[in-house]
């Protein structure tokens, strides 16, 4: 079945440094990938999405490129801010199930220090 | 502010009690999902609907939950007999295609 893997559970960085959060996926169908950000006690909010191979997508300083050859959709930012501290989830639209179900990774907690 | 409205925000129930939560999906979104997010922040898919029909649900949902999405009324998810392990954040999301999902703020259930 479809799956999403996020290798880092916890990332701690100093403000101003770059960050990359890893996301790889498995699916037998044409993938639609998402990054969601969830602040404490809030709903997950869409950060980025893509289904186009090798095209960079950007929003609020974050960017990601879907690489179908390596089944990856890593999230990057060149300079993190204190307000970026949150949970980040990579997700895949589960086309193979036929139900449009979103398959989530385990999440990465990003903490940005002053 | 989310376009998916979930109520109540918090719910406290005793073990064995029913626990009911509601969701108004984003206008124009025919597909509604319920997810359970546990204390480890893991998402578990529970059930989804297209219009009023169940598309898919997991075994636990079929046995212990009651869910519906009637036309012109909020969708609902009800645990028939709450257990301590049901304590979690219940998230409703709606979609009109596999490229566009909107989440509500969730109902945080505590079973004591």
What does this structure look like?
- The complex is a heterodimer of chains A (114) and B (112).
- By secondary structure, chain A is mainly β.
- Chain A has one domain (3-113): Sandwich (Immunoglobulin-like), CATH 2.60.40.10.
- Chain A has no helices and twelve strands.
- Chain A has strands at residues 3-5, 10-14, 19-21, 24-26, 33-38, 45-50, 56-59, 62-65, 75-77, 86-94, 101-104, 108-113.
- In chain A, strands 2, 5, 6, 10, 11 and 12 form a six-stranded mixed β-sheet that branches. In chain A, strands 3-9-8-7 form a four-stranded antiparallel β-sheet, with no helix packed on it. Chain A has a two-stranded antiparallel sheet with strand order 1-4.
- Chain A starts with a strand and ends with a strand.
- Chain B is mainly β.
- Chain B has a single domain, classed as Immunoglobulin-like.
- Chain B is built from one helix and eleven strands, in the order E-E-E-E-E-E-H-E-E-E-E-E.
- Chain B has one helix at residues 59-64; strands at 5-7, 10-13, 19-24, 31-37, 43-50, 53-57, 65-68, 75-79, 88-97, 100-103, 107-111.
- In chain B, strands 2, 4, 5, 6, 9, 10 and 11 form a seven-stranded mixed β-sheet that branches. A four-stranded antiparallel β-sheet of chain B has the order 1-3-8-7.
- Chain B is globular.
- Chain B starts with a strand and ends with a strand.
- The model of chain B has no long low-confidence stretch (mean pLDDT 93).
Largest contact between protein chains?
Answer: A-B, 25 and 24 residues
Hey, roughly how much beta strand do the residues of chain A contain?
Answer: over 45%
- CATH homologous superfamily assignment of chain B: Immunoglobulins
How many distinct beta strands of chain B? 11
The third-level CATH topology of chain A is Immunoglobulin-like
Count of spatially separate domains of chain B: 1
CATH superfamily of chain A: Immunoglobulins
Strand content of chain B: over 45%
Second rung of CATH, namely the architecture of chain B: Sandwich
Secondary structure category of chain B: mainly beta
């Amino acid at each position: 079945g479809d799956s999403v893997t996020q290798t880092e559970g916890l990332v701690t960085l100093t403000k101003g440094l770059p960050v990359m959060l890893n996301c790889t996926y498995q699916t037998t169908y044409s993938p639609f990938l998402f990054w969601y950000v969830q602040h404490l006690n809030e709903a997950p909010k869409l950060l980025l999405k893509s289904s186009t191979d090798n095209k960079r997508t950007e929003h609020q300083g974050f960017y990601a490129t879907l690489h179908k050859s390596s089944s990856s959709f890593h999230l990057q930012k060149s300079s993190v801010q204190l307000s970026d501290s949150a949970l980040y989830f990579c997700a895949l639209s589960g086309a193979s199930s036929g139900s449009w179900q979103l398959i989530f990774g385990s999440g990465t907690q990003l903490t940005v220090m002053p | 502010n989310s376009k998916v409205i979930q109520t109540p925000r918090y719910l406290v129930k005793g073990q064995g009690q029913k626990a009911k939560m509601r969701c108004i999906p984003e206008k124009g979104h025919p597909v509604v999902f319920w997810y359970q997010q546990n204390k480890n922040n893991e998402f578990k898919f529970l059930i989804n609907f297209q219009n009023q029909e169940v598309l898919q649900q997991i075994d636990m949902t079929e046995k212990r939950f009651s869910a519906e999405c009637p036309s012109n009324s909020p969708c609902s998810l009800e645990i028939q007999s709450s257990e301590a392990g049901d304590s979690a954040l219940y998230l409703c999301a709606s979609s009109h295609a596999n490229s566009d999902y909107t989440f509500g703020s969730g109902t945080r259930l505590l079973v004591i």
